[in-house]
Amino acid sequence: QVQVQESGPGLVKPSGTLSLTCAVSGGSISSVNWWNWVRQPPGKGLEWIGEIYHSGSTNYNPSLKSRVTMSVDKSKNQFSLKLSSVTAADTAVYYCATWSPPRGFDPWGQGTLVTVSS
Amino acid sequence: DIQLTQSPSFLSASIGDRVTITCRASQGISSYLAWYQQKPGKAPKLLIYAASTLQSGVPSRFSGSGSGTEFTLTISSLRPEDFATYYCQQLNSYPRTFGQGTKVEIK
Questions:
Q1: How many CB atoms lie within 10 A of CB B70?
Q2: Which of A20, A49, B28, B34 is the most buried (most CB within 10 A)?
Q3: C-alpha torsion sign, points A59, A49, B49, A106
Q4: Adjacency order of strands within the sheet including A3-7
């Protein structure tokens, strides 16, 4: 069964770019799934960042759209998130997750905490 | 954006209690609703999708109902491992949105 796992720096400087990768195992990224990013600030709720299909089609949250870029690397069976011009408000646990209609998001990665601080 | 409002935000209950959490959408979302359980330090876990379909491996004491704008998650008999925070999510339109969460604690 498909599993996903996030990786990337845990500390990013203000005004810098947050870069995370989600490795897909147990299945192909070129399957029917959409590949999602969700974040959760410490002690707060869940916020959907966006999703990408293996073709490169994307849907982003309008609240973050100007700063978000997602991409797929089929050769490595992984997908990535870049969030530019970060501030302390972007400090959160970032999760990757997969979605195949009509199901919900499943599975999720374990999450990775990214702190924005100088 | 479609707003999802969960009630209550906090719930204190005892082992064996029947628990119901409500999720109201700001506009109709048909049955495109999922429920998740999240424990501290862990990723959310999918419990129910399409409003009422139990995810494989999820105990049958969990059930979901509703369509349109009003949905419920019911735990028929609360067990110790059910103390957690529960979120609803709409998958009807973009951007995907989540409810604010309902924390279920031990009375």
A1: 12
A2: B34
A3: positive
A4: A3-7, A18-25, A78-83, A68-73
Beta bridge partners of B64: B73
Whether the CB-CB separation of A90 and A18 falls below 8 Å is answered with yes
Predicted local confidence at residue B12, as pLDDT: 96
Chain A positions touching chain B (beta carbons under 8 Å): 36, 45-48, 51, 59-63, 95, 97, 99, 101-106, 108-111
What is the separation, in whole angstroms, between the first and last Cα of chain A?
40
Tokens 């369509």 belong to: B67
Q: Is the peptide bond before B95 cis (omega within 30 degrees of 0)?
A: yes
Please name the residue that has the structure tokens 């479609």: B2
Task: Say what the alpha-carbon torsion angle B70, B76, B78, B81 is, to the nearest 10 degrees.
Answer: -80
Please report residues of A whose CB lies closer than 8 A to that of B95: 48, 59-63
State the Cα–Cα distance between residues B99 and B15, nearest whole angstrom: 25
DSSP lists the bridge partners of residue A80 as A21, A71
Per-residue pLDDT of chain A (118 residues; tens, 9 = 90+): 999 999 999 999 999 999 999 999 999 999 888 999 999 999 999 999 999 999 999 999 999 999 999 999 999 999 999 999 999 999 999 999 999 988 999 999 999 999 999 9
Which residues of B are less than 8 Å from A108 in CB distance? 43-45
Chain B contact set for A111 (CB, 8 A): 43
**A89: β partners:** none
**Checking DSSP bridges between strand B10-13 and strand B102-106, what pairing results, if any?**
parallel
Q: Tell me the pairing of strands A58-60 and B62-67.
A: unpaired
